[in-house]
Specification:
heterodimer, A: 284 residues, alpha/beta, Rossmann fold, five-stranded parallel beta sheet, 10 helices, 5 strands, 40% helix, globular, B: 358 residues, seven-stranded mixed beta sheet, 15 helices, 12 strands, 37% helix, 16% strand
């Protein structure tokens, strides 16, 4: 089953693109007046590695049949994905300046009918792993090398539908299906493990029949690459799940590890502080 | 001038953005990370949630519990903070159940709690309660006719640029077709606390359709929030606006706009969507044209319920429906969307003028 070429890129490029995600999240939030900093920052290295090194997509042909599919269960972090899609050329970077404004294509959640490069709409937590199951089944039926990658949140592990999808993925032996859980410890009401414990997640995913890879630091670029590469490019007849332990708000010191910056807004003085930290940071 | 600078020079209409130091002084910031070192316009989730002042569920339930209602239990799905019931959880941790992001399990558990003689109150975003959970609500709560109270917040398009997944315009159409379910719409904080206080011991399920908590204030005190009731807030002879939710305030604004033009309208808060106050509809029909107003899909919604009464009783008056068109909303800030879809005072006034000319 599918295993696809990996682009040879320097770690410094991934680091720069993760910076781009964080910087643009700050800028777009300024345009909007409100934004999900915490969950965008926690996935920055993962998304940078996927889009600049691992996923096979074509900006000039966003509907290319054999593209890898990427869906976001944690759709509220789309603010961190849009700048990547613009950077790759899926749509003009000027679109970013309209973020959240009247009639924009770019809102808080990704919308497949509006944004080139978005493979599926989301916003209701827990839906997109099921959608990815369908994509993986479809790719297999069509004989396509496409893989279906779904990025989820840790609070999302509470949704029953996740475990329905987990059963289906294993039952159908979908080794072209990859789940990534961004375990950043920040939900609406606080740390999801305090709200409703879903750990031990490794035991659960393994019990559900998935090739489960624990990534202790989802900001360590080498380790994250290794985990994602094993999940995407070492198919063994089972779906794969990467449990990525990350830090909410990673990269801006006053946001790191807080639930309070799940949603927020920075005034001009604090934007400069955040930009300075993002530029100076050598994450990964 | 960059796009960001332009927006800073012309900040959006009142909303989350550009929160002032004065405004922040009115909010409990004990859990906020935004200290004096921050730019005065910065805010975190604590500040934002502090603006949901009309979400009075938690406060009211604490008062009821203090008054001896030790049967009240509160259920939420990782939305205790945003729907403002976390205070109840702090006051009564044994009677507060946060089920995490697992709505259908929460609905079923609430039904189970009700079978044990408790009075469950579910507090959650409406789109993840009424829309995601509609089958569980029907089978577990309504078919079984259990006394579960549901407060669905952030209804309609209040979530603006969060997009369709976070809009809830189809809930009225879905819920008013479920037997045994009473459906009511408190339009502000006093209405919401009245709704709970009046109906907490009602022996059957009720769904309260509430906003995001930043609604304009309509009522300066609590009142008897009767099943099948309504409140006539303005009297006028030319036409009648029957409104629910945010559109009650829009109706009052339309009243003032039209008064200056010599048009006098009656404005009624039809907070009981199912069952409807039939007398209010009949009285309106005698007066002249009826304008229904709701922040919901006009197909199957509150206006459709009014249309059924007019048709079935042969009331023979014209109905103009103000509400969301039968389509998904464009993206945008909430205030802009309200203007765009005519869900404000000007929009309702325009609908009245059109109805009177027809």
């Amino acid at each position: 089953m599918p295993s696809r070429a990996v682009r040879n890129v320097d770690r410094s490029l991934i680091r720069d693109k993760a910076r781009l995600i964080r910087r643009e999240t700050v800028r777009l939030t300024d345009i909007c007046g409100s934004g999900h900093y915490g969950s965008s920052f926690s996935m920055a290295e993962i998304v940078a590695l996927l889009y600049y090194q691992l996923l096979h997509v074509k900006a000039g042909d966003p509907r290319w049949a054999d593209r890898d599919r990427f869906t976001m269960g944690k759709g509220h972090a789309a603010i961190g994905l849009f700048p990547v899609l613009a950077d790759l050329g899926f749509f003009p970077t000027e679109w970013l300046d309209t973020y959240s404004r009247m009639g924009s294509f770019l809102g808080d959640h990704p919308e497949m009918k509006k944004v080139p490069g978005i493979d599926f709409s989301s916003g209701s937590i827990g839906h997109n792993l099921s959608v990815s199951v369908g994509m993986a089944l479809g790719a297999r039926l069509k004989g396509s090398p496409a893989r279906a990658v779904c990025l989820m949140g840790d609070g999302e592990m509470n949704e029953g539908q996740i475990w329905e999808a987990a059963q289906a993925g294993a039952h159908y032996g979908l080794d072209n299906l990859i789940g990534i859980v961004d375990i950043n410890g920040a939900g609406s009401d606080g740390d999801p493990q305090q709200t409703l414990r879903s750990e031990p997640l490794k035991d659960k995913w393994e019990a559900f029949g998935w090739n489960t890879i624990v990534l202790k630091d989802g900001h360590d670029i080498d380790a994250t690459f290794d985990a994602l590469n094993r999940a995407l490019n070492a198919p063994d007849g089972r779906p794969a799940c990467v449990l990525a332990y990350t830090v909410a708000g990673k990269g801006v010191s006053f946001m790191e590890g807080t639930w309070q910056w799940h949603l927020g807004f920075l005034g001009p003085k604090d934007i400069e502080r955040a930009y300075a930290e993002i530029e100076a940071g050598e994450i990964g | 001038m960059s796009q960001s600078d332009r927006y800073r020079a012309n900040p959006p209409a009142p909303g989350m953005a550009y929160m002032s130091a004065e405004l922040k002084k009115t909010i409990d910031l004990s859990e906020s990370t935004v200290t004096d070192d921050f730019d005065e316009r910065s805010w975190d989730m604590v500040v934002s949630l502090g603006l949901s002042r009309q979400l009075t569920t938690g406060r009211t339930l604490i008062e009821l519990a203090e008054a001896g209602h030790d049967d009240i239990v509160v259920c939420t799905a990782d939305l205790g903070r945003p729907t403002q019931v976390i205070g109840f959880g702090q006051a009564y941790p044994d009677r507060y159940f946060n089920f995490g992001i697992a709505e259908r399990n929460m609905i079923g558990a609430a039904a189970g709690l009700a079978t044990m003689g408790l009075t469950p109150v579910i507090s959650n975003y409406s789109f993840f309660l009424a829309l995601m959970g509609v089958e569980n609500i029907r089978n577990d709560i309504c078919y079984t006719n259990l006394p579960v109270k549901m407060v669905g917040t952030h209804s309609g398009i209040a979530m603006g640029f969060y997009g369709t997944s976070h809009h809830c315009c189809e809930d009225i159409g879905a819920l008013r077709a479920i037997p045994n379910l009473t459906l009511m719409a408190p339009c502000d904080g006093h209405a919401l606390s009245s709704a709970l206080r009046t109906n907490i011991k009602h022996p059957a399920p009720i769904y309260f359709r509430a906003g995001r908590g930043r609604e304009a204030v309509v009522y300066d005190r609590e009142f008897d929030f009767r099943i099948g009731g309504s409140n006539t807030l303005r009297d006028g002879r030319h036409a009648t606006v029957l409104a629910i939710g945010n559109l009650v305030k829009a109706g009052l604004d339309a009243h003032d706009i039209l008064k200056a033009e010599g048009i006098e309208i009656t404005v009624v808060d039809m907070y009981s969507i199912r069952p409807l106050d039939l007398e209010a509809v009949r009285a309106a029909a005698k007066r002249g044209p009826i304008i229904s107003a709701e922040e919901a899909n006009v197909t199957g919604g509150f206006g459709a319920a009014i249309a059924e009464v007019i048709a079935e009783e042969g009331l023979g008056t014209r109905l103009t429906k103000v509400g969301m068109p039968d389509a998904y909303a464009v993206l945008g800030p909430p205030t802009h969307l309200y203007r765009h879809y005519g869900l404000d005072g000007e929009g309702v006034a325009a609908a009245v003028r059109k109805a009177l000319k027809a």
